[in-house]
Write a structure and sequence with these properties.
alpha+beta; two-stranded antiparallel sheet; 8 helices; globular
Length: about 240
């Protein structure tokens, strides 16, 4: 199964991940059309995590959702959207990130992986970054190490060209993706990292503590909500 334990193991030993994801779509012009490869025409539940890459709330949220994806990964269309402020005067990214430019770089690393890698690959890449520690996210060496550990082809898949082949996070395409993501996040009304959105509805926020989680905030609660939405979409 695809779990945080596997992500940790991969970061330590470079073992290849083979998580069980299925087919999906392209949310917010970031997710590639071929990110999933399922055999059925069922409708997946859009699940969006509003995050900041160096935010402890985001790391916690993504760790919990690793357990969710183990159970219902074939029923969801998973994506990340990033919290920040568009700022034309910011020289490298055109975005102000709460935890500084290095967080902007970390956001770009993840966005480029999302665009060019299959879901199981980019998700394991994110888990590896988190395992390294939030203070390491955004550093070129961290991105390159996790790409190697999870067998994400930095040089040839498009990820490196997008994010910067040197791992800087300052590739032109990646910067544009970050600006687009920040704009989408604002349009969605997401202000806090981490915000959980299931099928277009904000269902929970973790901002130092769990807030506005009427349906609960455990993996079991999120699994139940996804199952409910999946059944509605596929009646």
């Amino acid at each position: 199964m695809f779990s945080a334990k596997l992500a940790v193991l991969s970061c330590l030993t470079s073992i290849v991940f083979v998580p069980a994801f299925a087919a999906g779509s392209e949310p917010f012009n970031v997710q590639p059309n071929d990110a999933y490869a399922g055999a059925f025409d069922d409708v997946k539940v859009p699940v969006v995590l509003g995050v900041m890459s160096r935010c402890s709330d985001a790391v916690l949220c993504e760790t919990i959702f690793d357990r969710v994806i183990e159970r219902v990964g074939d029923k969801v269309d998973l994506s990340l959207t990033f919290v920040g402020e568009l700022n034309a005067s910011e020289p490298d990214f055109g975005v102000t990130c709460k935890h500084g430019p290095i967080e902007c770089a970390g956001n770009v690393h993840e966005l480029c992986a999302i665009k060019y890698a299959p879901t199981q690959r980019w998700w394991s890449f994110v888990q590896c970054l988190n395992f390294k520690g939030k203070d390491e996210i955004g550093k070129p060496e961290t991105a390159l190490q996790c790409a190697k550990a999870t067998e994400l082809d930095w040089a040839n898949s498009g990820v490196g060209a997008c994010a910067g082949r040197d791992g800087s996070g300052k590739g032109d395409e990646g910067v544009r993706l970050l600006q687009q993501s920040v704009a989408v996040t604002r349009e969605m009304g997401i202000e806090k990292s981490c915000t959980v959105v299931i099928n277009g509805k904000q269902v929970c926020v973790h901002d130092r503590e769990w807030k506005n989680c009427e349906g609960g905030h455990t993996p079991k609660d999120f699994i139940r909500q996804i199952e409910e939405e999946y059944n509605k979409l596929n009646q």
